[in-house]
Amino acid sequence: MMVVVAHPDDECFAFGGALALAADHGVETYVICLTDGQAATHRGEAGSVQELGAMRRAEFAASCEILGVSHHELLDYQDGRLEFVEFSKTAGRLVERIRRFQPDVVITFGSDGGPNTHADHMMVSMLTTAAFHWAGRSKRYPDLARPFQPRRLFTVTTNYFLPDRQPPLLSPWTVVLNVRAVQERKAEAFRAHTSQAPLMERTKAHFEQYGTEEYYTLLATDTPQPATQMTDLFEGLDG
Known about the structure:
By secondary structure, the protein is an alpha/beta fold. It is 36% helix and 17% strand.
């Protein structure tokens, strides 16, 4: 399973349950984060953007370790500027990693940008969606390893809105993932992002109220099929 995110802490607050459950079931996981979060509002004790970036890289690694992530990688894009990247080149970097890792399942944000409608989340959704489709096409990036087609693309969605924010236009979910068994591990991974402590405090009540489930939309598959409700991202896959 491959998860593609925009910032350190995305991997746990949005996808932590799915990652921890996958680890518990022996599924190899790979998390790719496009930026090191230097534009964050909360900056901990960092005295410069470089210090904040280094701090958040270390926090990302610690969070992934808690969640049992098999492989993690943090790329070099600028936080808050993903809408200005060279789309084809950036998607190509994801295509290369999909072809190398060969995941059955790819997960990212929805095009709504998540509960905070972050433009970086919207862009990572679009980049990952393109990479999912292009990875299996022999005419796309023929110099970037052999084509490989993942079987499912999911985007995260939700059943609640953050207060005091304009709500996103959410996609209807097709998967309700019960993450109660790993809820504390997901919270522990979030706590590893010490620079974001004020954010944790502000969202604590929401995690406590809604944190037992994660919601996902099945966006694309390798075979035609009707939309159905599932409780497992790997439901019906062989092997």
